[in-house]
TrEMBL record:
Domain DUF7065 residue range list: 15-163
DUF7064 domain span: 165-282
Pfam (any one): DUF7064
Domain of life where this protein originates: Bacteria
Region (Disordered) residue spans: 276-299
Name of the protein: Uncharacterized protein
Lineage, highest ranks first: Bacteria, Bacillati, Actinomycetota, Actinomycetes, Streptosporangiales
Compositional bias (Basic and acidic residues): 284-299
Length: 299
């Protein structure tokens, strides 16, 4: 398995497991699992976040359809797992494991609202970030949703370190195109330019790309269109169905996390589907420096 590691820490198979927590209150460790069906009509994501400084875990599971249906299981008060990555709360139990590190992961959810049994098989390598301990893995996704067979594609990631949801805005996006290309790009509003985490992956493997940027059009606070600028692969992203989460800090600050199943189209006519998030902490408009595209319908 090829690992493209942009950071100064070497990734190895042990990094698929939990890490020793830092002492900061906002230190967290999280695992995301995104998936979209082959036809783009159904998509979802699961996130498990461990917050040892708060003695709790966050668990999110969301399933949406292109027709606007949405089912969610959101728990911000789950008990920290003792050893494995199993969590439980009112009306649900969930498990997450990587039996073949960097090659295969499995998730399970059993609740009255939603049941998931999905396997994520690595499709094109592992991508490690340069600016924070984190890696992304494009995947083929199979299994069942509500007992119905599922086949699609997605991305999973794992990160650990301090994350302040209430002071920093960012954009994160990943998708698979109809020619088999996986794409990923992320940028945060840090007030400076950095070599942002971005890659393109396909049959030739996974490769970091330089010069990634993004610009978003909003209707009020709602993102309606984003242009992802990969060198030679400018891609327009349009939300189909949102599955947002509201995040309240221990001090009462509120951040909004609009995350959506999206349609993607490149300037050369390729299309695909994936997930994009536009994180909005308090005052995000005043602090955001990300360039904006014109409002929808304005040009």
């Amino acid at each position: 398995m090829r690992i493209v590691n942009m950071g100064e820490w070497p990734l190895d198979r042990a990094d698929e497991r939990r890490h020793d927590p830092g002492g900061e209150p906002l230190w967290n460790e999280s695992w995301y699992y995104d998936f979209v069906s082959e036809d783009g009509r159904t998509g979802g994501y699961v996130r498990l976040g461990l917050y040892p400084g708060w003695n709790r875990a966050w668990y999110w599971a969301c399933l949406v359809t292109a027709g606007g249906d949405r089912v969610t299981v959101i728990d911000h008060e789950a008990a920290l797992p003792a050893r494995d990555l199993g969590v439980a709360g009112p009306g649900y139990t969930a498990g997450h494991r990587a039996p073949d590190p960097f090659e295969r992961a499995e998730i399970h959810l059993d609740s009255a609202e939603l049941t998931l049994d999905l396997e994520f098989r690595t499709a094109a390598g592992v991508y490690g970030y340069a600016i924070t301990p984190r890696y992304e893995i494009p995947c083929e996704v199979t299994g069942t949703i509500g007992g119905v067979p599922f086949h699609g594609h997605g991305e999973r990631d794992h990160s650990w370190g301090v994350r302040d949801w209430w002071s920093l805005s960012w954009l994160w996006s990943s998708a698979r195109l109809d020619d088999g290309t996986y794409l990923h790009g992320m940028r945060a509003n840090l007030g400076m330019e950095l070599p942002w985490p971005a890659f393109l992956a396909g049959e030739g493997g996974l490769a970091h790309v330089e010069g990634f940027s993004a610009a978003t059009a909003f209707d009020g606070d709602r993102p309606v269109r984003t242009v992802l600028s990969f060198p030679g692969c400018a891609t327009t992203v349009r939300p189909i169905t949102f599955a947002p989460v509201t995040l309240t800090s221990p001090e009462g600050a509120v951040a909004e996390f609009p995350r959506a199943l999206c349609a993607y189209e490149t300037e050369d006519g390729r299309t695909g589907h994936g997930w994009t998030e536009w994180h909005q902490p308090p005052g995000w408009r005043e602090h955001a420096w990300e360039p904006r595209v014109q409002r929808e319908g304005a040009g």
